[in-house]
Amino acid sequence: MELIYLAFVFFKIGVFGFGGGYAMISLIQDEVVNNHQWMNSQTFADVLAISQMTPGPISINTATYVGYNVGGLVGATIATIALCLPSIIMMYFVIRFLFKTKGNPTINSILASLKPAIAGLILSAALIMMTRENFCDAGIGENNISIIICAVTFIATFFFKINPMMLISIAGMVGFFLY
Description:
By secondary structure, this protein is an all-alpha fold. The chain has helices at 2-16, 21-35, 41-53, 58-100, 105-128, 145-158, 164-178. Helix 1 crosses helix 4 and helix 2 (21-35) crosses helix 4 (58-100). The protein is globular and about 60 Å long.
């Protein structure tokens, strides 16, 4: 029965999760941690960190890890397929529709209006991840190394366009030696 819930939850996230993997993080966390208690916040943060480091889209990686946690290899397969299936179905119909309405100004304005909503979902995911579990040494009287790592990584990526893979490796080494 748990696998049916798992399939339904990730299918629902696949249907309503617009904006890519990072925009889906808040939806996944709400379902996995709050609604179904398949894992706690700390475990979800760990799964999210692993999902970011492994190749592939973060939402699919997260679904796979959560599914494995709930139902082993079968759960991982169900969660991954359930998350991807709505996109595959929708893309078939969207592509057919877009080819028929190519250049329509109304359609173009609707698509342009989705961009701020997607940016808001990504910002929401970032704010949700700003928890005590992810910034374990933050606060007055603490060394705030995790905040410094976060800030330096943001500046290096956003302003200096340094490769994120290199920054992940460096941050991992700094964390290994400091924690």
